[in-house]
Here is the input.
Amino acid sequence: MTAVAVAVASLRRVVRDRTALFFMIALPLVVILIIGATVRGFSTFRVGVVDEGAGRTGTELVAALQAAPDLRVRHYPSVGAASRAVARGEVSTAVVLPRGMDTDLRAGRTVAVPVLAERANSTQQAAAAAVAPVLAAQGARIQAALFATSAGAGSVDQNLERAGRLQATLTQVTVASRTAESRAQTLPEGFSYSAPTMLVLFVFLNALTGGTLIIENRRLGMYERMRAAPLGPATIIAGEALGFVVIALVQSVIIVATGAVVFGVSWGNWPAAVALIVTWAVVGAGAGMVSGTVFRTPEQATAIGPALGMALAMLGGCMWPLSIVNSVMRQVGHAAPQAWAVDAWTALLARGGTLGTILPQLAVLAGFAAVLLTLATLRMNRVIR
Here is the structure.
């Protein structure tokens, strides 16, 4: 029970530290939200619409754009306003409906519908590509109506209505895609990418920064008082390690729960996910204890620790997939424990892995944890004695 008492004392100090709570709880969630929204993929686009007096056909085209599930329509009063919105990123693309479009189409004349997008901007080009099928569908309906009218099958308005009804009942051609390489090398897009990578990043980062607890205990002479209690070095070290593990687990649970409930992240096979979370918490505990014995002042820990944590996170694939770098950098990246943790999450979330699937990664992470805890124990013994 004495080791638990040491851990509880450390946890109470963390709970009273508002700055530590911010970095442990609030900041990871904000970063998950930002990165998840950034890498969500080309699934929904904001489209600007400028109606210069297109008439009924233009109104129907706007309604079709609004009905498209992957488009969100915003109206602008002029081409200049829409162009500025595209340049500023307020919308991904813009459609200009020219004056007299309805009259020209009914007369059988060709009408150009400008779509504004930068050639060098992949997002805007993807948005323009999403708009194109809607324009094509409306154009096909008008062509069918004009053809029927020329054959004497009624007025243009009647044939437009008939064409619309027929278009809605026709069997749609579907395109099925199949991934040639089923062993995905990257995490899924959006929050399923940002949540696990930020869990890996912040658990390790906060553990390094949390080394200030050990530094403060050294500075205040807490270990001398514990020895006078008396508590042996092994008990003190076990208590400090337990405190670090609990902090890492609490942070992990918050990220996992928020990711699942708020962002809809599926964490894969639960036994495997729990094993990975616990193992990574132990790795973080070892790193935090080493940090507390290597740095001499809290200022050193809070200045160097985050920089080191961010460097290892970038090296280990928390910021970008290691699959996009060359083979040499991939090998170098796996010198960091973060790479093995991200590999394990990739196996669980992108390939539907189980506990057996990630056993190699868990074994390597356990090795990192053993080395860090051994080093921390050796250095803590020197500090306590």
